[in-house]
Specification:
130 residues; mainly beta; Jelly Rolls; 9-stranded antiparallel sheet; 1 helix; 3% helix; 48% strand
């Protein structure tokens, strides 16, 4: 695991979760912080995170998010909370960049576990596999 509580996304190759959807991540025992970018026209299909809550703040662009049966288009400065287990999908016609916090840490969102995780006394015991 990372040997310092400090990290950088500068110069780091992002993880491609879906074609045209990339993220950089950094986290600890209990939460993960990601910078996510969608190329224009990209979609993440309907899914849920059974163990993980997701908070998002939109930095640039816009994305249409459906959570369960409610759909909104969100833009820079908007925030979204997706509680664990709720089905959601994201569509960005123009492209979007947002920061998301996820807790507990979903390991499928961690590009490099050696570089991107700083573990404390829990040793990542609460992390979840998808």
């Amino acid at each position: 695991m990372a040997d310092s509580p400090f990290g950088t996304w500068n110069g780091q190759e992002p993880l491609e979760l879906f074609p045209g959807v990339r993220l950089n991540a950094f986290g600890g025992d209990q939460m993960l912080l990601c910078r996510v970018t969608y190329e224009p026209g990209k979609t993440v299909p309907r899914h849920s995170h059974d163990e993980t809550e997701q908070l998002m703040v939109i930095l640039d662009g816009e994305v249409t998010i459906t959570v369960e049966d409610e759909t909104r288009t969100v833009r820079a400065g908007d925030v979204v909370c997706i509680n664990r287990g709720l089905e959601h999908e994201l569509i960005s016609e123009t492209g979007v960049t947002f920061i998301e916090g996820l807790a507990p840490v979903p390991l499928d969102h961690v590009p490099d576990r050696e570089r991107d995780l700083v573990l404390g006394d829990q040793g990542g015991a609460g992390h979840v596999e998808r």
